[in-house]
Amino acid sequence: ALVFRGTGRRRRSVLFHRGTFGGVAGAWRRLQLSLVAMAQAAAANTAESLQSAPKSTGGSLGGSSAGRREAMKESLAMIQAVVDPHNEYGQKRILSALKYMGLNPEDMDGSQDRDIEVSDKIPDKKRAERIREERQEVWEGLQRQRFAELHRVLESLSENESRRALKVKVGEGVRSVRPQDLPPVDALEGMGDFREMQEKVYKRIQDEQQRKASLLVSGFLMEKKRLDEADAKIEALEQRLRDYKKAQDEAIALKKKISKANEEKRQASVAKSNRERAEWEDNTYNNLMNRLTK
C-alpha cells in the first residue's frame, strides 16, 4: 500500500492498494479498447474522405485531431478520478504535471507501451500464463509508480512551473526559453516594489555620477587654479631673479667703473709724482752744476 499525505491547502491521506490499481488497470483497458475503436473509426473516415475528395484532407485531419483531443480528455478524466477525486487541482494542472514528468496522458497506462500477451509458440501453457501475469504485474507496478510520482509532482508543482510545463511538447527534447514562455513584466508579483527599488537605485546612481562629475570638475578647476598660482609664483621668482641679477650686474659695472677711475687717478698721481721728481732732480742737478762752475 502507498500512502500520500498532502502538504497543500488541507492535509489528506489517499490509500492506493493493488485492488484499486487493478480496477484502474481494467478501466484503462476498457478505455484502450474505446480509443482503438475511435482510432479505427477516424481512420475509416479519413480513408473515405480521401477516396471521395483527394484534394481536400482538412476535414478528415481535423476529425482525427478532435478524436485525439477527446481521447486525451477521457484519459485526463480517468487520471483525475484516481489522483484528484475532489477536483482540488483540475485537469489542466494534472496535464502540466504529466508534461513536467515527461509523460503524455496515455503513458499512464503501461499496457499501451508493450503488449503483455504471450506468444502461442510457448508449449507450456502454465509457463505462458505465468509470464503473462509477470508482465501484467510489471506494467501495473509501472502504473502505480507513475501515479505515485504524479501525486508527488501535483503537490509540489508551483504555478510558474505549471505554466511553463504546459508550453512543452513531450518528445521534442530540450529547447531554449522563448519570449512567449515568459509572463508579462506587469503580471509579475512585486513589480511595483521592484520598480520603486529600481528607481531608488537609478536615483542613487545618478546622484553618485553627479557627485563624481562635480568632484572631477571641481578637482580640475582647483588643479588648474593651483597650477596657475604656481606658474605665477614661478614667474614672479624668475622676475625677481632677473631683477636681482640686473641690479647685481649694474653694481658690478659701477664698481668696475669706480675702480677704473680710481686706478686712472692713481696712475695720474704716480705720473705726476714721477714728473715732479724728475723735474726736482733736474733742477737740483742744474743748481749743483751751476755752483761748481762758478
Summarize this, please?
This protein has 294 residues and is mainly alpha-helical. It has six helices and two strands, in the order ββαααααα.
Major beta sheet summary: 2 strands, antiparallel
Amino- and carboxy-terminal Cα gap: 185 Å
What order do the strands of the largest sheet run in, or round the barrel if closed?
1-2
Name the structural class.
mainly alpha
Instruction: Tell me the Rg in angstroms.
Output: 59 Å
* Topology order in helix (H) and strand (E) letters: EEHHHHHH
What is the percent of helical residues?
over 70%
The average pLDDT is: 75
Globally, the shape reads: rod-shaped
What portion of the residues fall into strands of 2 or more residues?
under 5%
Number of strands: 2
Low-confidence region ranges = 1-22, 49-61
Number of helices: 6
Overview of the molecule:
- There is one protein chain.
- With 294 residues, the chain is mainly alpha-helical.
- It is 73% helix and 3% strand.
- It is built from six helices and two strands.
- A two-stranded antiparallel sheet has the order 1-2.
- Strand 1 (2-5) and strand 2 form a beta hairpin.
- The longest helix has 103 residues, at 191-293.
